[in-house]
Amino acid sequence: MNDLDELVAQAGRDFAAAAAPAALEDAKARFLGKSGQLTELLKGMAALPHEEKKTRGAEINQAKQAIEAALAARRQALADAELEAQLKAEALDVTLPGRQRGAGGLHPVSRTLERMEGIFGSMGFEVADGPEIETDWMSFTALNNPENHPARSMQDTFYVDMKDAEGRWYNLRPHTSPMQVRYARAHAAKYAAELAAGQAMPEIRVIAPGRTYRVDSDATHSPMFHQCEGLWIGANVSFKDLKSVLTDFFRRFFESDDLVLRFRPSFFPFTEPSAEVDIAFESGPLKGKWLEVGGCGQVHPNVVRNFGLDAEQWIGFAFGLGPDRLTMLRYGVNDLRQFYDGDLRFLSQFR
Ligand code: DAH
Fold first, then answer.
1. Is the Cβ–Cβ distance between 140 and 152 less than 8 Å?
2. Ligand 1 atom 12: the closest Cα is on which residue?
3. pLDDT tens-digit profile of 286-332?
4. Fewer beta carbons below 10 Å: N end or C end of the chain?
């Protein structure tokens, strides 16, 4: 092996030993760089006699081409390896199932509230909304609750550590009934003006769904729950109207003409007479069971007066329904707390 073969072989080994592009460029410099071994050989030719220059030059050039070819091959090999490694590292498993954007949905109780608004809306009821922090007067006094009524106690009602200008405690409303008072008082002046102008007797036909609060917690009671208040008063709104409104509502809500209602005499300070409303189905999974779904009654004259209206002129009824209960019945859920645990495995079933 002559010195040039040896040099080519050496370059081949050095290139092979270079594991990264930078090391390969270092190795290249040792052979082909300004003072690399091959370059030195070329410089050394100046001293050779003319005849030898020709053959030696050709040999050196051949060696140079061989080294350059080895360098190019190694560069390509390193680049290929790098690409390979990168592809491996960034590998996509195309057999994985796609990641979907989580589709949200309405909470089951919100669905019920929308449904209630839709059905009552089609019967001419407006939808009203109001504060969840109420005054003692709105939650109790205006609704004819006597001063020492047990519903006012701290065992039943959440109080807010704050009093209004007249020194009465604020509370988290224990029912939506204060909305009767708020709505009527907000419109009383308008009605008076209409009557004074000789217009026909106006009426209030409104529902007020929303959150309510009580000191209570078990499988069928949650400290925060929902109610839907209803109020329909005017010149001559009767119990017959109450019965047909509620019957219609429940049949449509449960999509069942087999549904029957029962009015059980009861007591509420703000209505007289008062009744508790039960429903039963004549077929289906709930067949034959009476289920309590709300309270109702003819609005008490004292309450009508607190509305700012004339109790001789305004007569009608009010009702309070439990949307949580209706949601449980509609979907067959037996623990109310599931609605408020925030467990998506449960909630996503209602999407
Ligand atoms: N406010 C009552 C409750 O919390 C429900 C109720 C009963 C509302 C009779 C009414 C009504 O409007 O007339 O339990």
1. yes
2. 319
3. 888 899 999 999 999 999 999 999 999 999 999 999 999 999 999 99
4. N
* Distance in Å, CA 320 to ligand 1 centroid: 4
Q: Per-residue pLDDT tens for 108-154?
A: 999 999 999 999 999 999 999 999 999 999 999 999 998 888 888 88
CA 156 to chain CA mean position, Å: 30
Tell me how far the alpha carbon of residue 175 lies from the centroid of ligand 1, in angstroms: 7
Q: Work out the angle at residue 277's Cα, subtended by the Cα atoms of residues 249 and 204, and round it to the nearest 5 degrees.
A: 55
pLDDT band at residue 3, thresholds of 50, 70 and 90?
confident
Q: Which CATH superfamily is domain 108-350 in?
A: Bira Bifunctional Protein; Domain 2 (3.30.930.10)
What is the number of the ligand 1 atom nearest to the C-alpha of 175?
Answer: 4
Residue identified by tokens 């109080």 is: 159
Hey, how many other C-beta atoms are within 10 angstroms of the C-beta on 236? 12
Q: What is the pTM of this model?
A: 0.73
Q: Which residues line ligand 1 (CB under 6 A)?
A: 175, 177, 229, 268, 271, 295-297, 318-320
**Which pair of tokens denotes residue 32?**
């082909």
Nearest ligand 1 atom, CA 212: 4
